[in-house]
Design a protein that fits this description.
This protein is mainly alpha-helical. Helices cover 62% and strands 4% of the residues. The protein has a domain of 180 residues. The longest helix is centred in the last third of the chain and has 27 residues.
């Protein structure tokens, strides 16, 4: 691994490097999401409160999911439940709780807006933030690597013996490619439909996350690993349902740069 320490001390306080990395990624994601929402004329006034609600719900859900899937470790030790500085956050648990919270506050603070239009603006920013978070977060935490490997790309991680598959870096690259693909899809005007960006992101991210867990991280006997694989497939299936539905409805996303009354050219039909 690099020479960056996994933690450092300031007097009696201990700070974990990956926590700062995740905070940076969250802040960049917030600024980018706010900008994207503003560009499509969503009010950004309540977005700070919306973001805070998602962060709190995500952290709580991620922690509860980790406790539930590792009950043998936490059972009988209540103090371990709140020791998040020792690690133990399950991403799909965070998504599972943040999703209904986000839906509730989206309806409350943007009642006149399209949910699919809102998520289309938000999701690419979330993917970009996730990509940055994988590089700045788990890459610098204890036990952050994947399976043991002897290949040239293996890295050493604190708390793990031998060279490991650099899963955080791999996932950062995967999510960066997905982010670029979503931006490219946004610019395909003839194919734009409300909800398509969200559906494609759910399908790709869910499948890739499930495969990563299966091939790079997971253990067959570990309930948490199997749960991640199943959750990834469920997310992808939900995205496929959304994508098919939105394409059938054929509700075009408004594009202010194009005159709606202008004739369609032959190249645009393609």
């Amino acid at each position: 691994m690099s020479g960056v320490p996994t933690s450092f001390h300031l007097g009696p306080l201990v700070f974990h490097t990956y926590g700062f990395g995740l905070a940076i990624a969250a802040y960049v994601c917030y600024l980018y999401a706010r900008r994207r929402l503003s560009k499509v004329d969503f009010s950004v006034e309540p977005f700070g409160k919306f973001t805070l609600s998602l962060i709190v719900a995500g952290l709580l859900g991620a922690r509860l999911a980790n406790i539930a899937t590792n009950w043998g470790y936490y059972s009988g030790h209540p103090a371990r439940w709140i020791a998040v500085w020792q690690g133990g956050l399950a991403s799909f648990g965070g998504i599972a709780l943040a999703l209904p919270v986000g839906l509730y506050f989206q309806r409350r603070w943007w009642p006149e807006s399209s949910l699919a239009g809102f998520t289309d603006a938000l999701v690419p920013a979330l993917i970009a933030g996730w990509a940055l978070g994988r590089v700045l977060g788990p890459q610098f935490m204890v036990n952050g690597g994947g399976h043991l490997t002897h290949q040239w790309f293996g890295l050493h991680y604190a708390g793990e013996v031998g060279k490991r598959v650099p899963v955080p870096l791999i996932q950062g690259i995967e999510d960066s490619i997905l982010w670029l693909a979503l931006l490219g899809l946004e610019h395909l005007r003839p194919l734009r439909r409300v909800g398509v960006i969200t559906g494609v992101a759910m399908i790709v991210w869910g499948l890739v996350r499930s495969l990563d867990e299966r091939l790079l991280l997971g253990q067959e006997s570990h309930s948490g690993s199997i749960g991640v694989q199943i959750a990834g497939l469920v997310l992808a299936l939900a995205g496929a349902v959304l994508l098919v539905r939105q394409l059938r409805v054929g509700c075009s996303t408004p594009d202010p740069s194009v005159d709606p009354h202008a004739p369609v050219t032959r190249s645009e039909r393609r």
